[in-house]
């Protein structure tokens, strides 16, 4: 059965800390790995990764994919209270996108 | 260029009534996904549709739930004879399938269904 597993499930850190969120997967017909940020409502798209070893960056966020070991990480440096959210990892196949349960990140001021 | 539009944002139904949730994809997108999210949980896949075609409904309960994406108009997720356990946030996402087969999905704001 296809699965996407995220860890940790929840994380509380202080503003300014760096966090690493993990996502491992076992999915047939892998096409891409996706990261989303969900605050109060709709998930918003962060990254799409398709190739191993190529880091994608957007401001303080970065992500990388390892297709051999079947995992991805999402890094957030110099965290701010606005980074508090649920971070969702998902794997795109030909026919659907499969989501993990998410990591709930809370940044303390 | 409007994003994915879902309505209503909030829906309250009594047990046994029908719930209809609508999703208009982003302009130019012909693929629609429906997901359900329970409190404190991630998004759970329900169904994947293209125009006039259900591609994968493996996440849909066998009874009471149906989905369609007609040639004209929004995609509809229909829940008949709702029960308390149907209370959840229902998210719709649309995507544009790239030639490479890779795709990212963009989400609507969701419909929060409450069954009383």
Distinctive features:
heterodimer, A: 109 residues, mainly beta, 0% helix, globular, B: seven-stranded mixed β-sheet
Question: What this model shows, in words?
Answer:
Chain A is an all-beta fold. Chain A has strands at residues 3-7, 10-14, 19-26, 32-38, 43-49, 56-58, 61-66, 71-76, 85-92, 97-99, 103-108. In chain A, the strands form two sheets. In chain A, strands 2, 4, 5, 9, 10 and 11 form a six-stranded mixed β-sheet that branches. A five-stranded antiparallel β-sheet of chain A has the order 1-3-8-7-6, with no helix packed on it. In chain A, 34% of the residues are buried. Chain B is mainly β. In chain B, 0% of the residues lie in helices and 49% in strands. Chain B is built from no helices and eleven strands. Chain B has strands at 5-7, 10-13, 19-24, 31-37, 43-50, 53-56, 65-68, 75-79, 88-95, 105-107, 111-115. In chain B, the strands form two sheets. In chain B, strands 2, 4, 5, 6, 9, 10 and 11 form a seven-stranded mixed β-sheet that branches. In chain B, strand 5 (43-50) and strand 6 (53-56) form a beta hairpin. Chain B is globular, with a radius of gyration of 14 Å. The N and C termini of chain B lie far apart (36 Å). The mean pLDDT of chain B is 89. Chain A binds chain B through residues 6, 31-32, 34, 36, 41-45, 48, 50, 86, 88, 90, 92, 94-102, and chain B through 4, 33, 35, 41-45, 48, 55-56, 91, 93, 95, 100-110.
Helix share, percent of chain B: under 10%
The helix-and-strand class of chain A reads mainly beta
Structural class of chain B: mainly beta
Cα gyration radius of chain B (Å): 14 Å
Instruction: Report the strand count of chain A.
Output: 11
Give helix % range of chain A.
under 10%
Total number of helices of chain A: 0
Mean pLDDT rating of chain A = 93
Rg of chain A from C-alpha positions? 13 Å
Binned strand content of chain B: over 45%
Q: How does the overall form of chain A come out from the CA principal axes?
A: globular
| SSE pattern of chain B | EEEEEEEEEEE
Report the β-strand fraction of chain A as a percent range.
over 45%
- Strand count, sense and closure of the main sheet of chain B? 7 strands, mixed
- Give the distance, in angstroms, between the N- and C-terminal Cα atoms of chain B: 36 Å
Largest sheet of chain A, in brief, is: 6 strands, mixed
Q: Give the total of beta strands of chain B.
A: 11
């Amino acid at each position: 059965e296809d699965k996407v597993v995220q860890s940790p499930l929840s994380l509380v850190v202080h503003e300014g800390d760096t966090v690493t969120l993990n996502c491992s997967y076992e999915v047939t017909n892998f096409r891409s790995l996706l990261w989303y940020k969900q605050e109060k409502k709709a998930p918003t798209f962060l990254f799409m990764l398709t190739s191993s070893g190529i880091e994608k960056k957007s401001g303080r966020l970065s992500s990388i994919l390892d297709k051999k070991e079947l995992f991805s990480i999402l890094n957030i440096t110099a965290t701010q209270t606005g980074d508090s959210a649920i971070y969702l990892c998902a794997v795109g196949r030909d026919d659907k996108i499969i989501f993990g349960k998410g990591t709930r990140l809370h940044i303390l001021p | 260029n409007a994003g994915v539009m879902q309505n209503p944002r909030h829906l309250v139904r009594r047990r046994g009534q029908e719930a209809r949730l609508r999703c208009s994809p982003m302009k130019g997108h012909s693929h629609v996904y429906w997901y359900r999210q329970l409190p404190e949980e991630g998004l759970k896949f329900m169904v994947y549709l293209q125009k006039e075609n259900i591609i994968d409904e493996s996440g849909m309960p066998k009874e009471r739930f149906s989905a369609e994406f007609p040639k004209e108009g929004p995609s509809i997720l229909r829940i008949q004879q709702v029960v308390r356990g149907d209370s959840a946030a229902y998210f719709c996402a649309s995507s544009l399938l790239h030639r490479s087969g890779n795709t990212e999905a963009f989400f609507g704001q969701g419909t929060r269904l409450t069954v009383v």
